[in-house]
Amino acid sequence: MKNKVSIIGAGMTGSTTAHWLAERELADLVIVDIVEGMPQGKALDLQEAMPVIGKDVKIVGSNSYEATAGSDIVVITAGLPRKPGMSRDDLLVTNAEIVGKAATQSIKYSPEAIFVVLTNPLDVMAYLTLKLLMVSPNRVIGQAGVLDSARMRAFVAMQIGVSVENINCYVLGGHGDEMVPLIRHSNVAGIPLKEILPLDRLESIVNRTRKGGGEIVNLLKSGSAYYAPAVAVAQMVEAILKDKHLIIPASAYLQGEYGLKDMFFGVPVQIGRTGVEKIIEYQLDEAEKTALQKSAEAVRQSLTALHSLLKI
Ligand code: TXD
After folding, report:
1. Are residues 137 and 222 both part of a single domain?
2. Mean pLDDT over residues 175-187, rounded?
3. φ/ψ bin of 29: left (φ > 0), alpha (ψ from -120 to 50), beta (otherwise)
4. Can you tell me the mean pLDDT for 188-206?
5. 83 lines ligand 1 (CB under 6 A)
6. Which residue's CA is minimally distant from atom 27 of ligand 1?
7. Same domain, 136 and 149
8. 151: Cβ below 6 Å to ligand 1?
9. Dihedral, CA of residue 43, residue 36, residue 108 and residue 127, to nearest 10
10. Where are the beta strands (DSSP E) in 33-182?
């Protein structure tokens, strides 16, 4: 039977995710949005692109959740993006309502689905999704780490002129300005990054990575990044559908790992057909542990705001 993936929110990230997924011919796609005609129009446009690239994918746009019935994966991108000067946390109140509705409506029609959350503030929206759905924690994953690590990889590639394929970087922690790019674990074709670039250039890469989302928001002026976030989701969807047991950094529900409990946080996870199969615990030095704790504190603060908002 063909796989089915539904994307809630047909804006920039939602429609671009559909684009990347359709190119990979992984599943039939449904895109849902509240704006009348828009998801239908984008779906039809994308459907009409399929003959050109020779992919047999059915793409449906809808304003109702019925169309999503029986999805293997539901991707939640619905919600407001940042404007210049806004932090991701500024979106919490509005997006909590939107994501809450998207999650509870979707599960009615796809009770077995795995949920991949993209909406910001990411770690808090993934937490909200899990709490509202009351499913096993392996079925909810937040996308942040693949994107943040890809940004760091891109910046290293720009500096040293080596193929991006040779560059491995790992960014953990919350999806905010306190995220933790792990220099010690990053390498170029196996050579530690520290042996390739001087400290000041590494520091500037770390800084640029942390502020990577804001850099694009400031350039675009309306809306935030979408190509890289969407392809990061596509990689996760592919790993789940193909049961790849792929290890990536992503936001997962922690129950004591890294000394953290009852929160979503960016850690290395192994993903496959059941969602999060395993959380991998890196051996961290004291500085890395401190940086992760600082990032966790920032996520905790937004979680407190969510708790007082929703009384959960
Ligand atoms: O790495 C990451 N996690 C992120 C997260 C990277 C990039 C963008 N990130 C966040 O994703 C961003 O901060 C936003 O919170 C979401 C969506 O960003 P996008 O760029 O796709 O925003 P758009 O283009 O404004 O699209 C949002 C769509 C828009 O079409 C709305 O009409 C729709 O969401 N929307 C809804 N759809 C369905 N149901 C409801 N209730 C709804 N409300 C709004």
Report:
1. no
2. 95
3. beta
4. 97
5. no
6. 11
7. no
8. no
9. 90
10. 59-62, 73-76, 114-117, 140-142, 167-168, 171-172, 180-181
| 17-63 tens-digit pLDDT | 999 999 999 999 999 999 999 999 999 999 999 999 999 999 999 99
Asked if 156 and 292 sit in the same domain, the reply is yes
Structural domain that includes position 76? 4-142
Whole-number Å distance, alpha carbon 225 to ligand 1 midpoint, is 11
Structurally, the chain folds into a number of domains equal to 2
Residues 201 and 282 in one domain: yes
Cα of 120 vs centre of ligand 1, distance in Å, is 8
- 73/207 same-domain check: no
- Taken as a whole, the chain contains a residue count of 312
Chain-centre distance for alpha carbon 147: 7
How far, in whole angstroms, is CA 190 from its chain's centroid?
A: 26
**Active-site residue identified among 19, 175, 185, 307:** 175
Ligand 1 binding pocket mutation candidate from 30, 65, 80 (most atoms within 8 A of CB)? 80
Catalytic status, residue 175: yes
Q: Which atom of ligand 1 is nearest to the CA of 15?
A: 21
Q: CA-CA distance, 164 to 15, in Å (whole number)?
A: 25
Domain identity same for 176 and 153 = yes
Which pLDDT belongs to residue 312? Answer: 58
Could you count the other beta carbons within 10 Å of the beta carbon of residue 37?
A: 10
pTM for the model stands at: 0.98
CA 145 to the chain's CA centroid: 7
